[in-house]
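Need residues for this backbone.
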């Protein structure tokens, strides 16, 4: 039995079939009733409603035999979808197209007649067929009856498609409203991305999605969401995204908006994604953020599933909403960062220290972990300003600030020539004091080596060792700093 050739509109035909979403669905009385009606009206023992996809013929309904599927190469329906007219084969045993079919060879199929299921735009996605185990007349009137019944089958399919689209449109409208509501919530980028991806997964079939940042240092996954089949795929994609010079990176960077329905197009450039189960994907650029270019990436695995026009419209609208939200978040964060940053040194300011101390207290309440707080005052700042000018004094402040960096230590400028140091991960209170003392001593040596006649006085208090809370620790550290300052002044006066 020769395999039927592919229709000239095969890609569009398969896309049309996918839009009905009927493949592999359970039996439904409406289609079973039409199969029974066809068998009864045309006085044949067997009738069925079958859909032909890229690899098989699958029956939605059957009367007179169990529902089933056969490979497309052996499917009579593969011949029926080649045209728009009813296919009538009075004796399949004598027809080279069907003679090798198992049902024909067994004698169960002699008469075969099939009316193509034609979509409104003319694509044949399957057939309503009838068979008999004997030769019998099947004239134009019967062929017309079969054609009309096939049209009723298509009406039923269209009704279900339009109903699904109405439901989907309602769900999409609700999704857009919920995405718009995210704009009014004080969410950071990661939480915003997580909630947006969760919404999209709830409204359409997705197996993996992510919000990516394409930064000069390489791509990063800001947030991702995996369905039941998507976890392993996500791991592979994360691994490949780390290869900045690879074809996947080039595609994401080079094309702003892509809806990939023909997954075989990715086979040559990214075969590992095909092997991981990718069948359709899309990515949409959302615009720039302070971390880099933001990209929404979504993937479907398993069977091919084209992106419907409604899904494309929803995703493009979602991309605009998420992009706007990220832009707003970035703007708010830049304002907050400016409000907590000392403009001269780039260190955190007093407001930033207060928030860091509040967070340290919350952390201690939850974990019992203490911290150390240091207060630093530059000695000799007035002399530099008087002798060299305030511009040189500003340079001194910046030079000193630039040296206040160590693992686990955050530095802040309190104003004038005072700084604060917060050590959040000390091995012990004694170790924290040593770290801060060594850090300030190194910063003092640095500015002296740059020609500034300046020193630094440090006071340290640990919580809970020296003080019960942040406020008390700040006072204690400040008092110790002034005591140290007096000691240094006395040493200079009485060498």
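Answer:
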């Amino acid at each position: 039995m020769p395999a039927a050739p592919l229709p000239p509109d095969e890609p569009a035909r398969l896309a049309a079939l996918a839009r009905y979403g009927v493949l592999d669905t359970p039996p439904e009385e409406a289609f079973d009733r039409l199969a029974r009606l066809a068998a009864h009206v045309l006085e044949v023992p067997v009738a069925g409603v079958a859909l032909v996809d890229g690899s098989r013929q699958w029956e939605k309904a059957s009367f007179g035999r169990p529902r089933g599927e056969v490979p497309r190469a052996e499917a009579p329906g593969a011949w029926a979808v080649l045209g728009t007219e009813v296919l009538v084969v009075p004796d399949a045993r004598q027809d080279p197209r069907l003679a090798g079919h198992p049902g024909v060879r067994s004698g169960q199929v002699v008469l075969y007649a099939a009316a193509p299921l034609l979509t409104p735009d003319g694509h044949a996605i399957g057939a309503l067929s009838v068979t008999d185990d004997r030769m019998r007349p099947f004239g134009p009137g019967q062929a017309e009856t079969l054609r009309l019944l096939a049209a009723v089958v298509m009406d039923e399919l269209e009704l279900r498609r339009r109903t699904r689209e109405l439901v989907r449109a309602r769900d999409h409208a609700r999704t857009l409203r919920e995405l718009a509501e995210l704009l009014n919530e004080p969410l950071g980028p990661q939480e915003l991305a997580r909630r947006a991806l969760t919404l999209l997964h709830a409204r359409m079939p997705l197996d993996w999605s992510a919000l990516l940042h394409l930064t000069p240092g390489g791509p990063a996954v800001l947030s991702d969401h995996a369905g039941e089949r998507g976890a392993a795929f996500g791991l592979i994609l994360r691994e490949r995204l780390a290869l900045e010079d690879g074809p996947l990176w080039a595609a994401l960077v080079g094309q702003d908006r892509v809806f990939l329905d023909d997954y075989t197009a990715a086979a040559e450039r990214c075969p590992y994604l095909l092997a991981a189960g990718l069948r359709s994907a899309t990515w949409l650029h959302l615009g720039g953020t302070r971390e880099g270019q933001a990209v929404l990436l979504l993937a479907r695995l398993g069977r091919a599933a084209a992106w419907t026009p409604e899904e494309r419209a929803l995703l493009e609208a979602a991309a605009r909403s998420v992009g706007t939200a990220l832009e707003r978040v970035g703007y708010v964060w830049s304002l907050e960062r400016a409000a907590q940053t000392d403009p001269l040194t780039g260190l955190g300011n007093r407001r930033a220290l207060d928030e860091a101390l509040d967070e340290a207290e919350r952390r201690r309440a939850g974990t019992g972990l203490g911290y150390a707080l240091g207060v630093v005052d530059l000695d000799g700042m007035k002399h530099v300003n008087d002798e060299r000018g305030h511009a040189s004094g500003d340079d001194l402040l910046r030079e000193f600030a630039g040296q206040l960096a160590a693992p686990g230590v955050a530095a802040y400028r309190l104003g004038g020539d005072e700084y604060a140091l917060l050590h959040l991960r000390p091995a012990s209170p004694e170790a924290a004091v040593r770290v801060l003392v060594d850090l300030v001593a190194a910063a003092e040596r640095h500015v002296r080596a740059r020609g500034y006649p300046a020193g630094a006085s440090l006071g340290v208090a640990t919580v809970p060792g020296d003080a019960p809370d942040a406020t008390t620790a700040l006072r204690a550290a400040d008092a110790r700093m002034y005591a140290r300052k007096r000691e240094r002044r006395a040493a200079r006066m009485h060498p």
